């Protein structure tokens, strides 16, 4: 989980550089569609490190290539602009967006229609 990485994807790269063990990285980009928090390079990095995918409350880019990578991507939209690499945000805390609180250990189901969350207590 990455909280409040507004138009800054340094923490996304850092997280996807570590072993994913089949997990989904949840990223709270505070809903900004002005810069992309992930593209094909970071998606390939995550796939290579065993991440199942990402849920991004923000934008991505390189969409045509993302479709070819075995890595799930759910995002609000796309934008070709790059993000800052300053390291804004925090890692590991619960994050909340779209009226949903994501807590480490929850299960998520994602398809083309959207995201469904199964809280840890219910699974
Ligand atoms: O480098 C970035 O900031 C995002 C990107 O385009 C990629 O991951 O391919
Ligand atoms: Mg790229």
From TrEMBL:
This enzyme's EC code(s): 4.1.1.112, 4.1.3.17
Gene3D superfamilies: Ribonuclease E inhibitor RraA/RraA-like
Metal-binding keyword on record: yes
Keywords: Lyase, Metal-binding
Organism encoding this protein: Nonomuraea insulae
Catalysed reactions, as listed in the record: oxaloacetate + H(+) = pyruvate + CO2; 4-hydroxy-4-methyl-2-oxoglutarate = 2 pyruvate
Keyword Metal-binding: yes
Cofactor: a divalent metal cation
EC top class, as a word: lyase
Subunit structure: Homotrimer.
Protein name in the entry: 4-hydroxy-4-methyl-2-oxoglutarate aldolase
Gene this chain is encoded by: rraA
Entry's family note: Belongs to the class II aldolase/RraA-like family.
Functional summary from the UniProt entry: Catalyzes the aldol cleavage of 4-hydroxy-4-methyl-2-oxoglutarate (HMG) into 2 molecules of pyruvate. Also contains a secondary oxaloacetate (OAA) decarboxylase activity due to the common pyruvate enolate transition state formed following C-C bond cleavage in the retro-aldol and decarboxylation reactions.
């Amino acid at each position: 989980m990455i909280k409040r990485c507004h138009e800054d994807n340094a923490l996304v790269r850092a997280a996807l550089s570590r072993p994913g063990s089949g997990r989904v990285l949840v990223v709270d980009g505070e809903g900004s569609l002005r810069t992309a928090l992930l593209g094909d390079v970071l998606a390939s990095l995550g796939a290579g490190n065993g991440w199942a995918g990402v849920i991004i409350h923000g934008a991505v880019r390189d969409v045509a290539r993302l479709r070819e990578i075995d890595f799930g991507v759910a995002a609000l939209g796309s934008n070709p602009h790059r993000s800052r690499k300053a390291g804004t945000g925090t890692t590991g805390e619960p994050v909340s967006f779209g009226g949903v609180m994501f807590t480490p250990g929850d299960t998520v189901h994602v398809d083309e229609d959207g995201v469904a969350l199964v809280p840890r207590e219910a699974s």
